[in-house]
Amino acid sequence: MNDINKRIEEILSGLTLKEKIGQLNQQETPVDGDAESFKEQVRNGEIGSILMSVGATAGNDAQGAISIDFYNELQRIAVEESRSGIPILFGRDVIHGHRTVFPIPLAMTASFNEELIERSYKDIAEEASNDSIHWTFTPMLDLARDPRWGRIIEGTGEDPYLGSKFAAAAVKGLQGENPADKNRILACAKHFVGYGASEGGRDYHRAEISDYSLNNYYLPAFKSAIDAGVKTVMSAFNDVSGQPVTSSKYYLTEILRNRLGFDGFVVSDYDAIVQLIRQGVAENDADCAELALNAGLDMDMHDKIYIDKLEKLIESGRVSEETLDNAVRRVLRVKLIIGLFENPYCKQEKYDINKHRQDAKEMACESIVLLKNDGVLPLDKSANIGLAGPFVYEKRSLLGSWMLDGKVEETPNMYEAMKAKMSGTIHDVGGTGLSWDSSLKWLYNSDVAVLCLGESWSSTGEHRAVSDISLLPEQKLLIEKAKSTGKKVVGVLFCGRPIEMQGIADNFDALIYAWHGGSEVANAVADIICGDAVPSGRMPMTAVRKATHIPMYYNVTSSGRPVNCYYGENAGECYIDSLATPYYPFGYGLSYTEFSYGDIKCENKEISLQDLKNGKKFSISIDVKNIGGFNGKETVQLYIHDKLASMMRPIKELKAYKKVLINKNETANIDFEIGFEDLGFYMPNGEYVVEKGEIEIFIGENCLTQRKITIKVK
Ligand code: NOJ
Q1: Residue 417 Cα, ligand 1 centroid: separation in angstroms?
Q2: Probe ligand 1: pick from 234, 246, 268, max atoms within 8 Å of CB?
Q3: What's the CA gap between 294 and 249, in Å, rounded?
Q4: Tens digits of per-residue pLDDT, 642-654?
Q5: If 0-12 CB within 10 Å is exposed, 13-18 middle and 19+ buried, where does residue 532 land?
Q6: Which of 274, 300, 462, 464 to mutate to test the pocket of ligand 1 (most atoms within 8 A of CB)?
Q7: What integer is the mean pLDDT of 424-428?
Q8: DSSP assignment, residue 586?
């Protein structure tokens, strides 16, 4: 028995039944009046973890600032006054920033830059760990194809490969090599599983997912987080094809632990255990507790079902003490791994917040996607600019939802950022909100209009699905008015999701997609507008023409009939009343410079399956030349299409990418190593297979590329 197992057994053997159950009980921070009775519960060993927020949808509501003294005091009571002396694990939703707010995760994904994502989460961990936080409930790895879903902002969009890359980078950034490092915190992969597939984007609703789709689309990001060492997973609220995940042994034990190899603990979502009654699979609270613990759900977030019901269930034999002990072991293991027993208290240290701000700006810059540029951008710094729209002075929405600890007053708005960056006159419209000068004098006196538009942070987030993903009518009117002057019109869109593009993108001469890009996004946009930074973000999700075309995602299987694909051959013919191609496809984004691709080179176009199984890789490469006027980063994307397989395979699947800086007139040789893990797929039973036959390999600038070679697996 190794040391950690020995310690776990020693601790466990000294616990009463109630104390064991206490380790599985997570309660939220008490509001003022409850503090004394809460302390008493801590003293009695009834609370294993604290959720450092209040309410079911914490990311939508302002949360109180963290009081380090208060949490240290609770910890002191746990360590010094409770019989077991086991420290409490403090968890908070630090989703995309703490004091320094980084872009929403969907935007970070658009950077296609894992090194930068990892660095961002390292900064986030440093700030959070110095504020009493041991554990954050991120990354959210729910693949989602419906931008109406409010929580789209928290995830990585429609692609399992991109989601997997984000997952590993976020986990490594948060936890580091050693999760006991005092500047790192525990990550939590959530929501396992299928939450992003809720029908119609309606939050919490049912998800219909076959095992085949589950394995190939929904599980890979979780597998990647587990392989990167994630120690906690949050179960999802929803059911998958009729099985609430909260009570599903199939999902929580067979798939998560046995198949994916997860060895940490599972926490429920907020009040999800008691919701089994509403979901119609449990009659009462005791049934809920029995079902959830037996399914493999270790920690109960908030609803007190475990602490109230498990004791009796164990005494009556409905839940075995062995099952309880295993759950407690898993929680204790994580507490030991992060060194909580040795360092239970928060000792605040100084960190370099300026460096974090610089990183947040770099991240915002790389996540911004230039969607359109008819030669307008970049603007000369001396240009006279007419700056208009509701986001000229807006600060709060730049930070996005799930923003608990950032400071609005520390967030420059577009007016401040442009004033600081440009030397020409900035004609601002004045006022706040949606007002603008109907005389358009501000624009006639300008060389170019820069319209700062978007959606409010509060139209995204938990339980905030929207049925209309267009801009508000006032904003559309502003675009039309600006266009009617004949001046060039640049759009800057601050959004939490890819919005409907028809009638919007068409009216701009240039369009910058800035997302809800965090504390430094306005400065990043100003840099891009004047060419101090060259845009390099790529769409992590398809941007549709019309919301009625949803769902629309690139890695779809082909229809058997020749006419109804929306991506690929005969694209657009699926509706008789509208053109249904993506407005901006997955992986799309422009630069100020231009890249020219050479031919794909492959050392060996015939590969034996046996060699692949033995770990042999083959090299495939391409020359990419910067033929434009700026040094810039290109994201070279590699997709495959398995032409003949025993199951239908998507028309394209991203399998690799490289983001590289290529200076003007220089050529980069981009080399990919492809092997067994890149060429196969999962069968419905979870078996991974590579099958013999031809596979097309595409390399290019986005998922529509037709530059390809065909290889043969023999
Ligand atoms: C509910 C959300 O679904 C989850 O993501 C979050 O971590 C918890 N609330 C805690 O706030």
Answers
A1: 33
A2: 234
A3: 7
A4: 999 999 999 999 9
A5: middle
A6: 462
A7: 85
A8: T
